[in-house]
Specification:
Rossmann fold; about 15% strand; 13 helices; single chain
Length: about 300
């Protein structure tokens, strides 16, 4: 048996991010734990519908079908507040949807963030903001996944590329520059970025996840790579130079960079064709979530 998941990209996901458990959650909130447990057991042979991160997970797992079968690139693990008993419906649904997910941690109602570390996950996706905050505080990339867009049925079968989009400050990078903007205003921010253009920014919570994606990208010719990444930031010139030089110093590739100068991001994400977008600001997430699966990263000064 393997002692670890090796060099694979590891994504941990909650059952509520993977499947639509809205009806079940309503029973839990209105009638309590026992009613919820009874409901899940009574319906354990009824397949759950896709949730907000379902399409992303499917496309991540599809990466294992590309190239050598002896070198799977991605592992998705389930980390859930369900008990093993109520989690049986989740595993039955995983099998019904033919998802290659074989590892799970069921915590019986407790915060599962400690298993993000145990699985050595590069990313944790959940619909529970408390669980996400705990994972972020422990040093892991994590996001509260939201989406009002329709799932699965609207995804073209021939759409092979998996497109990630990231905000910059407080997501890929630290919030050191955003702190200046929030406290001193736009001019002070621009002056600081111009003066610091050749000084790389510190890494944010998603730096290691972006680096792990880059490692997979290096296995493919650039023109045929199934993963594409984009920086979608409110920055504009002259604040762009520090970003470019930072990524260069990290030796991490970004395929597209959109410097929007404060414009609304949603339409640009639609034009790019993002499968998922990560941002630290709730307002950006709310508008983007109308069009694409979006992860709110509750990190940095914007979330204090």
């Amino acid at each position: 048996m393997p002692k670890s998941l090796g060099e694979k990209l590891v994504v941990a996901i909650s059952s509520t991010a993977l499947f639509d458990l809205e009806d079940s959650h309503k029973i839990f909130m209105e009638q309590g734990v026992q009613a919820y447990s009874n409901y899940q057991i009574e319906n354990e042979d009824k397949t759950l519908s896709p949730g907000p991160a379902f399409d992303l997970v499917r496309k991540l797992l599809d990466l294992n079908q590309m190239g050598s079968e002896s070198k799977p690139r991605v592992e998705v693990v389930l980390i859930s507040r369900n008990s093993a008993d109520t989690g049986l419906r989740v595993f039955n649904s995983i099998q019904a949807h033919n998802l290659d997910i074989v590892r799970a941690a069921f915590t019986g109602g407790r915060n599962p963030y400690q298993y993000v570390s145990a699985f050595n996950a590069h990313l944790f996706l959940s619909t529970n903001p408390e669980d996400v905050r705990k994972a972020l505080e422990s040093g892991f990339a994590a996001a509260t996944i939201i989406s009002k867009a329709k799932s699965s049925q609207n995804v073209k079968a021939d759409k092979q590329e998996l497109k990630f989009a990231f905000d910059g400050d407080a997501v890929i990078f630290s919030d050191e520059s955003e702190i200046i903007y929030k406290k001193q205003g736009l001019k002070a921010f621009a002056d600081n970025e111009r003066a610091s253009a050749k000084n790389p920014l510190k890494g944010g919570p998603f730096k290691s996840f972006l680096a792990a994606l880059h490692q997979i990208q290096k296995d493919f010719p650039e023109q045929d790579c199934p993963i594409r990444t984009a920086l979608v930031t409110a920055r504009s010139a002259p604040a762009h130079e520090r970003v470019v030089r930072t990524l260069r110093s990290w030796d991490i590739r970004i395929d597209e960079a959109l410097f929007l100068g404060g414009l609304t991001k949603a339409e640009f994400l639609k034009a790019y064709g993002a499968d998922v977008f990560f941002d630290d600001q709730q307002g950006h997430c709310d508008s983007a979530g109308e069009l694409v699966a979006t992860g709110h990263v509750p990190h940095g000064i914007a979330n204090q």
